[in-house]
């Protein structure tokens, strides 16, 4: 093959004839200086530890980057932040679209900052990578919280897989905590597997509901009920108050049918209005009761270390899988073997064996 020709710029078109130096040295230096403006890992860490939200945002962007060259720097920042994290309460909030999550988080977040807490709101919403979800709506619904100096709101990381989005969110939690945020709220939309992912990165899981037509338990996934530490029936205002109270009774009865939780906590049901703020303060009190109980009985720390090892294996699984399926030779052989399996010429196990052997060779 021919050797590639030396790169020619538009300014040096003809070999042997030098063009006058038309790019000034000063402007080259200027551009280089600008490029160097990308903060180093150390600068990011220093900024974060000083409570600088701009540094925090930049670091989260770095963590979310899919550019492999950013990975090392991102890991460096996270590792340096790790010893300063872990001193917080992590609260997961889920509920179907329209239940009032954003409005609730605005009211709840403002209540927390009024108590002197520093609140970070993150979101796990894999669907938002396509539609950019409700970010626009949230800007108006969390108007007050967005402006609050002691609050930080970050829209969902985008990504193809829930695992990827979840991992980035978990790392963002660490960065927020190192930046001094002591209350982390992770919001997720009540679809698919995202609740499970959020449940495995928080201390307390809150399910937001609204009172329905009397058949409250219809259409609610058992698994989500089981994960909830608190069910909050929102929009308990105006004509809705009575219905909300009835719903509370029904949920309470249902919750008692579940086996007791390892935490020793009996899940609770409460009503609130994110608009009038009635009952919002009670939610925080309930969370405090939970924290007191689980810190005393040791479950709080136990759960966090369980979660750490869960995410270790989860990340390995995710990356192995990605690596396997994106390798070209594997993909080709997989296609081939798939046909053989479909035609009963090869057993699925034998085919898998062949593929794995090729992969690990
Ligand atoms: N009456 C009443 N309306 C509420 C309450 N909370 C939220 N709403 C209204 O319900 C609608 C949906 O609220 P959002 O906060 O956007 O709901 P969401 O769960 O964040 O929705 P998605 O972001 O689409 O998942 C809005 O029109 C709110 O004004 C409440 O406590 N009472
Ligand atoms: Mg919302």
TrEMBL record:
Any one GO molecular-function label of the UniProt entry: hydrolase activity
Species name: Flavobacterium suzhouense
Keywords for the protein's UniProt record, in alphabetical order: Hydrolase
Family the entry assigns: Belongs to the SIMIBI class G3E GTPase family. ArgK/MeaB subfamily.
UniProt key word Hydrolase: yes
EC number: 3.6.5.-
Name of protein: Methylmalonyl Co-A mutase-associated GTPase MeaB
Every AAA+ ATPase domain range: 87-261
InterPro entries per the UniProt record, alphabetical: AAA+_ATPase, GTPase_ArgK, P-loop_NTPase
UniProt xrefs under PANTHER family: METHYLMALONIC ACIDURIA TYPE A PROTEIN, MITOCHONDRIAL, METHYLMALONYL-COA MUTASE
Enzyme class: hydrolase
């Amino acid at each position: 093959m021919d050797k590639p020709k030396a790169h020619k710029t538009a300014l040096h078109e003809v070999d042997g004839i030098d063009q006058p130096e038309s790019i000034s040295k000063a402007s080259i230096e200027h551009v280089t200086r600008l490029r160097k403006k990308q903060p180093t890992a150390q600068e990011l860490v220093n900024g974060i530890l000083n409570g600088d939200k701009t540094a925090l945002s930049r670091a989260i962007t770095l963590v979310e980057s899919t550019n492999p060259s950013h990975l090392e720097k991102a890991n460096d920042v996270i590792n340096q932040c790790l010893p300063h994290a872990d001193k917080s309460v992590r609260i997961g909030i889920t509920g179907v679209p329209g239940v009032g999550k954003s409005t609730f988080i605005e009211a709840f977040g403002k209540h927390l900052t009024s108590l002197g807490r520093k609140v970070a709101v993150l979101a796990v919403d894999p669907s938002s990578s396509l539609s950019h979800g409700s970010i626009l709506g949230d800007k108006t619904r969390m108007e007050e919280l967005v402006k609050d100096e002691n609050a930080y709101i970050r829209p969902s990381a985008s990504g193809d897989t829930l695992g990827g989005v979840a991992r980035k969110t978990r790392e963002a939690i660490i960065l927020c905590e190192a930046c001094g945020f002591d209350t982390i709220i992770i919001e997720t939309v009540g679809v698919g597997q995202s609740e499970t992912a959020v449940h495995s990165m928080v201390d307390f899981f809150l399910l937001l509901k609204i009172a329905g037509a009397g058949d409250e338990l219809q259409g609610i996934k058992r698994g989500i009920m089981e994960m909830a530490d608190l069910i909050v029936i929102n929009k308990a205002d105006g004509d809705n108050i009575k219905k909300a109270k009835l719903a509370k009774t029904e949920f309470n009865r249902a919750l008692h049918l579940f086996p007791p939780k390892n935490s020793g906590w009996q899940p609770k049901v409460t009503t609130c209005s994110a608009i009038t703020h009635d009952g919002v303060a009670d939610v925080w009190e309930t969370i405090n009761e939970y924290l007191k109980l689980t810190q005393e009985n040791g479950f709080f720390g136990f759960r966090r270390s369980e979660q750490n090892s869960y995410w270790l294996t989860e990340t390995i699984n995710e990356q192995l899988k990605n690596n396997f399926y994106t390798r070209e030779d594997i993909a080709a052989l997989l296609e081939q073997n798939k046909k053989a399996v479909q035609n009963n010429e090869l057993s699925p196990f034998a085919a898998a064996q062949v593929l794995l052997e090729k992969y690990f060779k």
